[in-house]
C-alpha cells in the first residue's frame, strides 16, 4: 500500500507551503479549525483536528513549525501515526529567549499579531525568506492569517509543556532564526532558515519518501 501523509501547516498558513513537495503516496492537508473559545486548550483542539485522521490507519503526520506542535498532540491520539517535525520544536526548552520571556511574563499578549506583515524586512529576516518568490508567499500568508486564530495559537505555543518522550523525526534549517535551537536536536539538518519547507522542498520530499518506503 502507498504511504499516507497528513500535512499540518504552520501558524496561520495553509496548503500553499506544501505546494513544492512531491510525495509518493496519498496526501492530505489538515486545515486549521477555528478555536471554539479564546482559551480552548491545545489538547482539546488537537482532538478535534485528529477527527480527520482515522484511528487505526498507519500514516505519517508531518507538521511545520506550530503545525509540528499539533502533529505531536495528534500523534499522541493516533498510535499508528509516525510524526515528522519540520522547523518545529518538542518543548519549551527549545524556545528562543524571547519565547521563554513571553512564557514567563505573558509578554505575547501585548504584541498585536497583525504587526509582522507591516514590517516586511523584519519578517523576511526572521523567517529567512531568501528571494522574492519566497517573500511574496510569506507576506501573503501573513496578510491572510486570522488575527483571532493567531492570538490563540501564540498563547498556546508559548505555554505548551511539550512531549519529550514521544519519538519523532526532525528536519530543521541550520540558519533558523525563529527556532534556532531545533537544528541541534534534528536528525536532518538542511541549509536554510525557517522556510525550508519551501526552499528545501526537493530534499524534504526525498527524505519523506525515503522514510515512508
Overview of this structure, please?
- This protein has a single domain (4-211), classed as Rossmann fold, CATH 3.40.50.
- 37% of the residues are buried.
- The protein has a six-stranded parallel sheet, covered by helices on one side.
- It is built from eight helices and six strands, in the order ββαβαβααααββαα.
- By secondary structure, it is an alpha/beta fold.
- The protein is globular, with a radius of gyration of 16 Å.
Please provide a brief summary of the model:
InterPro entries: AB_hydrolase_1, AB_hydrolase_fold. One of its GO terms (molecular function) is hydrolase activity. It is globular, with a radius of gyration of 16 Å.
CATH architecture: 3-Layer(aba) Sandwich
* Strand elements, count: 6
CATH superfamily: Alpha/Beta hydrolase fold, catalytic domain
Helix content: 25-40%
β-strand percent reads: 5-15%
Question: Can you tell me the CATH topology?
Answer: Rossmann fold
What is the distance, rounded to the nearest whole angstrom, between the alpha carbons of the first and last residues?
10 Å
The 3D shape can be described as: globular
Structural class: alpha/beta
What strand line-up does the widest sheet have?
Answer: 2-1-3-4-5-6
* Main pleated sheet: 6 strands, parallel
Tell me the count of domains: 1
Note poorly predicted spans: 104-112
- Rg, rounded, reads 16 Å
Q: How many H/I helices?
A: 8
**Mean of the pLDDT scores?**
85
